[in-house]
Amino acid sequence: MDLTTLATQLNVGAILPETIVILTLLVVLVTDLIIGRQSDRWTSYIAVTGLLASVGAMVLQWNQVETASFLGSFRSDNLSLLFRGIIALSSVVTILMSMRYVEQTGSALGEFLTVLLTATVGGMFLAGAEELVMIFVSLETLSIASYIMTGYMKRDLRSNEASLKYLLIGAASSAIFLYGSSLLYGLSGGSTSLVSIAGAISGQSLGLLIALVFVIAGISFKISAVPFHQWTPDVYEGAPTPVVAFLSVGSKAAGFALAIRFLTLAFPSLAADWQVIFTVLAILSMILGNVVALAQTSMKRMLAYSSIAQAGFVMIGFLIGTEAGYASMMFYLLIYLFMNLGAFTCIILFSLRTGTDDINEYAGLYQKDPLLTLGLSLCLLSLGGIPPLAGFFGKLYLFWAGWQAGAYGLVLLGLLTSVISIYYYIRVVKMMVVKEPQEMSEAVKNYPEINWKAFGMRPLQVGLIVTVIATSLAGILGNPLFNLVNASVTTIPTFNAMMHPPAISVAALPPKEDL
Q1: How remote is the C-alpha of 469 from its chain's centroid?
Q2: What is the C-alpha to C-alpha distance for residues 325 and 332, in angstroms, rounded to an integer?
Q3: R_g (Cα) of the chain, nearest Å
Q4: Tens digits of residue pLDDT in 137-171
Q5: Which regions form coiled coils (predicted)?
Q6: Element (H, E) at 74
Q7: Tens of pLDDT along 373-398?
Q8: Pairing of strands 67-69, 74-76
Q9: What angle do CA 501, 507, 512 make, to 5 degrees?
Q10: What's the pTM?
């Protein structure tokens, strides 16, 4: 193979967004090493600028010819670009959350940004990986960086405990996933490409079924699906809140991107089997996540179980295996980015001002901070699926795609559990708004004076306003966004052969009076 052919097959232009993030990471790291903590504010804006430039590179690559790079181990197509964009944007909002939070804890912000960008790179590569070695290296890059961020507050015993639990359970899940991948490697006669593995394996065998179960177990850990969710509540409660926000969106999006590519490319002959397995996982996640969330007294634990339930909703779109299903799934992940990160931004603002995240301590918050109350209320109501917010349209598309595909039981269960979720979301809103002045909690009574200025806002406030506006407008602008995710599915020949029903659009939905 000559040098020209090798350069063509490597096709490094396909990973331009990842290259920008890696260069940003190096700049942040070197700046922090040379200048020290005095550079914290500058490095934060450098990191945000680099991530936004990476998103801009993805926009330029949108709808270009589907390209494979690194000898076929990574594919840049609209599907991977959308997932990579979700991961990069989640990191942008996480950095806005982290600047004041990490500064107040006395930890080094430059080191935190370096680890966060490393996790971002791992997640972005995972979104387009189509080869076993690339998948595992990307997965471990994301996972190890996540373990470090979870225990980043070294003086906080809860953070240390959360990191240890996450590390132990995560190491076990990685080992299970690796064992399933090694079984595939052996059964395929030494192939590492997912497409080659599918071509080399014919029929069903016990070894292939074991490999399928082990791979699904590793993926389910990453997306927090029941019964692989045990780490989620403890890690969410103990880890730094910005880290929790990234895990709830960025890590989950990377997990679903891995699920789509791995299962549809490597296991096309076992599609019926893994769809049955994910049906069970979706049912368990929706039921357990929403029911247990009712009993929580901590906002972070409540959102932990909420994220488990949200994974169950997203799995409806994934397991039905249609264009409409995949498109509705990606649309929901796109709006979940804003409404969930908006909720965590509000939690961080409240905890920085009061030192607590107990739900009862939010009583009477409207009297002291109306804007924070409005932002948190909109994000929670959107997560619950209240119209006309973005979450309502996201669930509408998911359930309608499931109904079209004949998954009536899953859709009805999703509707029922959504009603349950509305109760614990509205409970928080009621706590903030309905309480009389004399019923204020002690934390709200001692709430510091707030000055929301039009200019010179702190990064947390900017992040809150951006996410709340996106959460509100995404529902109104749902059709353009849904056309965007439709394009990420319909332009991919690999999946077209597997997904025959047409993609849904807003025009295809029933009239509102019929819903």
Answers
A1: 19
A2: 11
A3: 22
A4: 999 999 999 999 998 887 778 888 888 889 999 99
A5: none
A6: strand 74-76
A7: 898 999 999 999 888 888 888 898 89
A8: antiparallel
A9: 115
A10: 0.90
